[in-house]
Amino acid sequence: MAALLAWLHARVLAPFTRLERFAARVADGDLSAPLEVERGQAFGAWSQSFDLLRTELAAARRREAEERASKEALIAEIGHDLRTPVATICATAELLELSARSPADAERLAVIQAKGRQVDALIGDLFHAHDSQIAALGVTPEEMSSQVLADLVRQADHRGLARIGVLPAVLVRADRRRLAQVVDNIVQNSYKYADTPIEVTGRLDGESLELSLTDSGPGVQASEIGLILARGQRGDNAAGTPGHGLGLFICAQLMERMGGHIRASLPQAGGLRVTLTVPLA
């Protein structure tokens, strides 16, 4: 009798208990839980089936995560690439409205501005919903002349407020498309919060080129200077201005992934200075 009980425990109860624990771990989401399969025991076939089910479930979850990440990255990338053209359209319509030849023309330009702001708000909502996927944006650094940085500032500065000094003639390494996003964001922020000329200067610092964009607006409080690069953080002067506090955070993420850095500082003369550190090639 004792021998029979020992056999039942070894061949039936113990395997069933292991199978039960395995099923509980898989149900809790642990798809890497180990399962020792003994083909000769009573639950051998069931154990193999459970193990196969676990493997297929893990593979399906990986595929789902990859597809979701790909879609989120595409949404984030499209959103980033739309913001600057929309802002340029709104600003251009605003300038044209000042010289409109008739009230009807002014009204049409006002409609363009209103719809542009509406699209920008929708893009902002898109960012807010998918900001967790910002890190999925592709970054491909390449060698380029430092004069490309000056070109990017000119392209972003549709209002002509930037005063670009002579930049050191060196080769840097960065992703031109992502660097354009960073520069666009800084210039647009200056338009939005300062609305003053932007002094653009460059200098060499070790193995990097530092590009500084300085306005003479109200800036931010000294206590906020370390926060405005963080996710969802905005200065007190942003109250009443649309935004989600993602712009400079996105810039910081992109600069880091290009091997560079971004920092904000308060010049003695007032305003805000944003400095990009771009690695030399």
TrEMBL record:
It catalyses: ATP + protein L-histidine = ADP + protein N-phospho-L-histidine. It is an enzyme of class 2 (transferase). It is found in: Cell membrane. Its EC number is 2.7.13.3. Keywords: ATP-binding, Cell membrane, Hydrolase, Kinase, Magnesium, Manganese, Membrane, Nucleotide-binding, Phosphoprotein, Protein phosphatase, Stress response, Transferase, Transmembrane, Transmembrane helix, Two-component regulatory system, Virulence. Its main location: membrane. The keyword Manganese applies. Residues 77-281 form the Histidine kinase domain. Its cofactor is Mn(2+); Mg(2+). Pfam families: HATPase_c, HisKA. PROSITE patterns: HAMP, HIS_KIN. One of its GO terms (cellular component) is plasma membrane. It is a multi-pass membrane protein. Residues 10-62 form the HAMP domain. InterPro entries: 2C_sensor_his_kinase, HAMP_dom, HATPase_C_sf, HATPase_dom, His_kinase_dom, HisK_dim/P_dom, HisK_dim/P_sf, Sig_transdc_His_kin-like_C. One of its GO terms (molecular function) is ATP binding. This is Signal transduction histidine-protein kinase/phosphatase MprB. The lineage of its organism: Bacteria, Bacillati, Actinomycetota, Actinomycetes, Actinomycetales. The gene is baeS_2.
